[in-house]
Amino acid sequence: MATRCAWGAAVRRPSKAIAGLVAGLLAGCSMAPTYVPPATVAATAPAAFKEASGWSAAAPQDAAPRGDWWTIFNDPVLNDLESRVEAGSPTLAAALARFEQARANARLTAADLYPSLSVGSGVSRERQSARRPNASAASTFTDVTVGGSLSYEVDLWGRIRDSVRADRADAEASAADLASARLSLHTALADAYYRLRGLDAQATLLNQTVEAFGRAQELTRARHEGGVASGLDVSRADTVLADARSQLSAVAASRAAVEHEIAALIGANPSVFALAPVDQRLDPPPVPAGAPSELLQRRPDVAAAERRVFAANARIGAARAAFFPNVTLGGSGGFEAVSGALFSTPATYWALGPLQAALAVFDGGARRARLGISRGEYDEAAAQYRQAVLTAFRDVEDGLAASRYLAAQSSDQRDAVLAAERTRDLAITRYRDGASDYLDVVTAQTAALQSAQDLLTVQTSRMRAAVALIRALGGGYGAN
Question: Where does the signal sequence lie (predicted)?
Fold first, then answer.
């Protein structure tokens, strides 16, 4: 058992015995094992990320500044929404309340490091019997006391200090949880915002499509009235036009739901919240090739998991200390008088003690069971820490892969859109010249619309992937 004492060899010289004893009372020992973060975590950290060269990883340290990372998207509407999210979000308010509770609990535990002092006073009127032992007459008097008492547990074995260390680590973990909740909230808002803008782009495309299909329908009706086109061509034109209008209504319904989601994220009433549609180009910010090299330094969830391992380690020490005597010092003093000046020298009283040492001899294995629980909690926290690290690396690999492959997909999809538009224009020209029937036009129009919608879907996915990568990196592509 690794035990760290501040006074184990304090009495080699008699002249230092008293000083060693005092130091022992004040410093004591710690029964907690020497803390070392789980070694297997370091083994899982790669030298570089597989999905992007120039990226590497380091150890947890979540104090790195994040800043307003969303400004890299250069969108003033998003900037405004992100500035409102922290003030109005109930989710963040709840996380902040949990942090305040953890911090107060750490202060409560730390109070046991200091003596407990209480003061009080009392006044009593008494009559004593004349027949009491060693008395010759009855007496009546008023007894007045003013005094205090002191109690102090000498933390020889570090039970209190290890508990304080554990609760302070829990408070730090709660602070990291708050940072994680804040990061999740901001990234959830950015994700919803770009889903909204993707739907705006879909609506713009469908409005243009409805206009184009309307013109094609008018052309078909004119040709039908002139006896050039059949009624089948008119029905086909009506079908694609009605289908485009139907899709436009579906997009409007989806946009309303996302708008309500954004309102809830910033703590606004969805009934009075609205965002004007904007047709903007969806281009994600570029991923820098060499930043950052400190993934785990920016992940608050990893930091929280590591601090919970430290807390569990400290609680092993508190459980071990229960196998040793519990030493308590006491004292009292004050003033007491039945007549005359209360606060005079003859009216003083004091008592030093008792000095108590208590040790449970038999408890049916309760202390050993508590120690087993503490060790099991440590093993659980260590496993969760390892899982948090693995999840962090997986999230970044996923984000890097998505950014890379979606960029390639977007480029290919643009080529597909251009080809589909050329096919559509050629089909309309051939139909107008009488070289083909309207089925070719409908097929080409449908393919061109689908191809354009697919491109918008990919562009929206690229924006969402950029947000997801920022979240995976703990907020931003680098220190802001």
Answer: 1-32
